[in-house]
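TICKET #2291
ISSUE: user wants both folds in one file
ATTACHMENT 1:
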Amino acid sequence: KIYNRPQHLFTAEFVGLSTKFRGTVSAKSPGAASLASGGVLCVADFPDETAVGEKVAIIVRAEDVKLNNINLQNRLPGKVLMRSYLGEDIVYKVQCAGGQEILAKIPVAEAGSFSVGDEVCACFSSRSCHVFRLPGGERIADTIRDEVIQLKAG
């Protein structure tokens, strides 16, 4: 539960490799969240009581990120900045629009042959997003549907 459903932002960041997206909810509609950087982020478990103007952080675990998997809802184009072999896994750091960096931890058998400088698409499911309120950092209650939110930088 601590790793798969963290209840606080500090725990989510402290345990394991992850990427944090920060922003302010600027609009809500069913299905995804659009970042000011131009990428699209589909957010699951986003409750009705979350208000436009509320600051949030979204955490995505590195092992939930795939490269060039067009079957996943979130597809953020970018460039490979780092490739690090870690025994059974390869960790990639991808820089996307607006400077957002995303970590992907992929088993060697599935990692492909991406090199530093390659153009890729960092992809992840909406169900892999963990949403937290800012500045407090508490997890936003789970719901059973996806929600689209528009995020502004900040």
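ATTACHMENT 2:
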Amino acid sequence: PHALLLLCPHLDHAEHLSPTGPGTTDPGTADPSSLTAAYRRRTDPRDPLLSPCHAHPALLAGLPPTLVQSGTADHLRHQAIRFVRRARSAGAPVELDLWEGLWHTWQYHRELPEADRALAEAVTFLLTHAARPIGPGPGWHRPDPARSTGVRPPG
């Protein structure tokens, strides 16, 4: 991808989560750890494909430009901060947008002016990086307007 957008991301499935804690007023789920366990099933919670906070710096260095949005009242904000620090130290172009007083996935609350501003910033970020030319690579061909994908199926 040309860019990544992470909205209040869950980046460390090995960590036990609590919906409350110092500085957290997140009105979200009562038991986030049970949701995490159901999502990951039998996958090792430290698998970097599931938990990028555990990724090797060489993997993080290969990230495209990335925007991470979180709120200071999000129970996952510390994971976003840790991920951004690790990715930046690996040389990845990562930006952190930390919104004061906002909770997990506030961007979905359209009645909040902050949600509109955050999503507008996210769209600008994505469009800025999507405007870069796409070069041919393995499996790439010029998209057929009649088809919904530009990648041919294997075989």
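RESOLUTION: both attachments delivered.
EXTRA DETAIL ON ATTACHMENT 2: The chain has a mean pLDDT of 81.
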